[in-house]
């Protein structure tokens, strides 16, 4: 049940933001939106506002924004000029409507990162010592398991990484540690020994595995980290795709079944992991949807580019046929990938 609910949440969030992008820019450019639906299949509930039906449908496997002029048959019977018709907008306006879906997936990833950093916090180990190794500088200085290191050479430390960053560069240099033991604060002088393999100073202490904390970041640092993560993950995904296309890396394709399995695992770990995975999946969806593959937004952008070059659009019926064939091929590919996913999960795949 947890996997099902988490999957509906993640997929629903990605689909909602994607379709919201199409919807918002369509409204902004004056396109008449006939329907904004989450899910596919029979309608469960809906409410109409102006020309737009806002609906929730039975199958949680997608969503769509239906705009005036998107159906070739509708164009064939249209009489006169309709300013709300999608096809009567400029190439740039139509391209903006199409591109906005993927763009919102990147925005969603950024917002999820922002929420993680500001509200949940970044998981890190606290400054509590778990174990003191025999014969090492920490033991000889009287440091004990459970001691909390508050400062190193009067430099406050809030977590394990901050503490280690003060110790590693100071091999063979006396350090003054302010520690807290059973509610009392005391000062300890200890000299880190040089680790010749890593060329860093070591006290001979280990982290307390049970001292994981979540450290929240400020607004500006969260904005910076959220932006950096969004760009970094986008770059990594593009790099992996290019490597698979060029043969530099073996193809590793996971379908809906594998994605649902990973969502279930992330949900069991916690909200932080689930939202992090959702951000990565949202970026992945935004990138894949821009591929020039029939039935995806990327192919529609290609057709709009051709229209701009030719000065006239492709025959709408032919374009629709191309998208229909592309959709059928994509559906077949998804079924094959889903079958292979099931084999892997059952231990029958490589």
Automatic annotation (TrEMBL):
Q: What is its EC number?
A: 3.4.24.-
Protein name per Swiss-Prot or TrEMBL: Zinc metalloprotease
Report the sequence similarity comment from the record: Belongs to the peptidase M50B family.
What cofactors does this protein use?
A: Zn(2+)
Give the PDZ domain ranges: 120-159
Identify the species of origin: Heliobacterium mobile
Name the principal localization, coarsely classed: membrane
Tell me the Gene3D superfamilies matching this sequence. Answer: 2.30.42.10
């Amino acid at each position: 049940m947890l996997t099902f609910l988490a999957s509906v949440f993640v997929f629903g969030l990605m689909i909602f933001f994607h379709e919201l992008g199409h919807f918002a820019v369509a409204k902004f450019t004056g396109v008449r939106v006939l329907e904004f639906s989450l899910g596919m299949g029979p309608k469960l509930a809906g409410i109409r506002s102006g020309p737009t039906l806002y609906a929730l449908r039975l199958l949680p496997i997608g969503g769509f924004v239906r705009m005036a002029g998107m159906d070739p048959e509708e164009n064939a019977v249209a009489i006169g000029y309709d300013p709300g018709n999608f096809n009567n907008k400029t190439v740039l306006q139509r391209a903006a409507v199409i591109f906005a879906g993927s763009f919102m997936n990147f925005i969603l990833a950024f917002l999820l990162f922002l929420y993680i950093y500001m509200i949940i916090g970044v998981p890190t180990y606290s400054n509590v010592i778990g174990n003191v190794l025999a014969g090492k500088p920490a033991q000889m200085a009287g440091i004990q398991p459970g001691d909390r290191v508050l400062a190193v050479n009067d430099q406050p430390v809030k977590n394990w990484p901050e503490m280690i960053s003060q110790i590693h560069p100071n091999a063979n240099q006396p350090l003054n540690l302010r520690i807290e033991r059973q509610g009392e604060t005391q000062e300890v002088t200890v000299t880190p020994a040089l680790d010749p393999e890593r060329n860093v100073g070591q006290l001979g202490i280990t982290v307390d595995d049970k001292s994981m904390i979540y450290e929240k970041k400020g607004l500006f640092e969260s904005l910076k980290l959220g932006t950096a993560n969004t760009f970094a993950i986008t770059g990594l995904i593009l790099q992996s795709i290019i490597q698979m296309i060029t043969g530099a890396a073996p193809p590793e394709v996971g379908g809906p079944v594998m994605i649902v399995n990973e969502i279930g695992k992330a949900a069991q770990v916690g909200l932080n992991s689930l939202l992090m995975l959702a951000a990565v999946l949202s970026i992945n969806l935004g990138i894949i949807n821009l591929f020039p593959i029939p039935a995806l937004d990327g192919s529609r952008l290609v057709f709009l580019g051709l229209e701009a070059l030719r000065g006239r659009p492709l025959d709408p019926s032919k374009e629709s046929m191309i998208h229909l064939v592309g959709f059928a091929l994509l559906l077949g590919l998804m079924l094959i990938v889903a079958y292979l996913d099931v084999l892997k999960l059952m231990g029958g795949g490589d």
